[in-house]
Amino acid sequence: MLRFHFTPEDLTKVRVATEPHALWEIAASLHRFQTREGRWAYASWFRTACAALHRTGLERTVKTFLLPLFPRASYFPDFLTPPEGTQGLDAGLEAVLATPYERVVSEVGVLNRAVGAPAWSRRLTERDMREQLVDALRAYHRAVIAPHEEGIQERLHAERVRHAHTLFRAGTEGVLTGLGPTIHWRPPVLEIDPYPEHRDVRLDGRGLLLIPSHFCWQAPIALADSGLPPVLLCPLHHLPAAPPQTDSAPLNVLLGPTRAAILRASATGSTTTEAARRAGVTPTTASHHTAVLRDAGLITSHRHANTVLHTLTPLGAALLRSTPGDR
What we know:
With 327 residues, the chain is α/β, with parallel strands linked by helices. The chain has three domains: 2-17 and 150-235, no CATH class; 22-149, no CATH class; 249-322, Orthogonal Bundle (Arc Repressor Mutant, subunit A), CATH 1.10.10.10. It is 47% helix and 14% strand. The strands form three sheets. A four-stranded mixed β-sheet has the order 3-4-1-5. A four-stranded mixed β-sheet has the order 2-6-8-7, with helices on both faces. α5 (89-97) packs antiparallel against α7, α9 (249-255) packs across α10 (257-265) and α10 crosses α11 (272-279). The longest helix is centred in the middle third of the chain and has 29 residues, at 149-177.
């Protein structure tokens, strides 16, 4: 069992990552090759990923180089999932390259004691070996994750919206209560059971970053070093995907393409930044359009701290339902 001990200050510092963490997704996706658990949920991805690895000649690299560093349900080095990964793949890989020598030695040693690391892993202290690792991670991401990024982004967006709705309705403790069937909020402790080890993490005012993950299946994952900034990788609620939109022309003509895109984004709840990304405009421009839609009675906006969440009004929902291609 893993237990996070909260102080009142920690409850004010619970955050949800606003972008996918590229390296955590790589780690969790590599775990999908090591078990049949949840295979049904990733069946389509698994088939295309295996084909892509074969086509690109990466099968051996994954089997002999990557999988030994990311054993499922066991320890793997924390430096492989640095916080910079939320800034994108390149930023995360640069952080892996910049890991101090002493930290690599320590974490590779823990890996060796935990599962028996391959002999070559000791050379990860050398920059050229880490460059080979970074190249392998980049090639793996390009082959099996990048082709699915749009769908992954959509699912993670829906999960963030779910958390935002819960936060507005039930506060931080409501978010902690609804993280999943293996995560239990028993104030002031968040318990993850089962977990591969028994450990207590005292947050002591540092808060907790929740990272929704597409490839994390059922069992949440935390960093092994309790001294690092606390994070919890959380599995998604596996909801059915939204039906594809086939004809957006009528709504685009009525509202204009930018406002139509923002209205659609609001169907599942959207922050101004997320709406801007969906519409392909700047947050400032999106803010102008959300004001117009709000004045027209099509969306409503709720502020929490520095974040504004936009959702449909009954009128906005009725407009989407009545427009061909947006039902």
